[in-house]
Amino acid sequence: MPPLPAPRHTLPDDIQSLVVGTLLVALSVSLLKSAGLVTGQIAGLSLVGAYASGIGFGPVFFLLNLPFYWLGYRRMGKAFVLKTFAAVALLSVFSELLPHVLQIGPVHPLAASLLAGVTAGAGLLALFRHGASLGGVGIMALWLQESRGIRAGWVQLGFDAVVFALAFAVIPPLTVLWSMAGAAALNVIIATNHRRDRYIAR
């Protein structure tokens, strides 16, 4: 069966995707923070940095992404970088604002981890399918998928291993193990749903 034709998105399509996708990932961050968990990718590294320094997730996440925009511009194009910058900025803002309007009560760490993985996976798919990412590892993962055929989810899984190794230094080992379950769920969602033969955004 030949691949499906690539959909063309309008500007309103892209805007709603950026807003909805980043809101879902911001909700994921809130779930993780409510249980003291981490995740993978730059978001996970930002959580580790936030826990270790006491600085908010939003500012740390925004700053860690800055070095990756040049790679995105060179490899993925101007439109991709502009959308990604907007998505990173939106997530940085939403993750700081959401706790003021949504209070999450006690949640079992495994439930929080898996729910965070599912919501983040859905949010990232929305961004990927509209030619954006959340920067950092997402830029490298999408570039490797488009240029080398290596699925984005597996690239991110490798980076996650490094993040979790660092997480052992700042949070309890059992909490890291709970966190891994959510990261695995997220990466399986990306690896099985973001495929060239199913859906390629333009």
From TrEMBL:
InterPro entries: UPF0750_membrane, YitT. The keyword Glycoprotein does not apply. Its main location: membrane. It is a multi-pass membrane protein. Keywords: Cell membrane, Membrane, Transmembrane, Transmembrane helix. It is found in: Cell membrane. It comes from the Bacteria. The chain crosses the membrane at residues 50-73, 80-98, 110-128, 176-193. It holds the Pfam family YitT_membrane. This is YitT family protein.
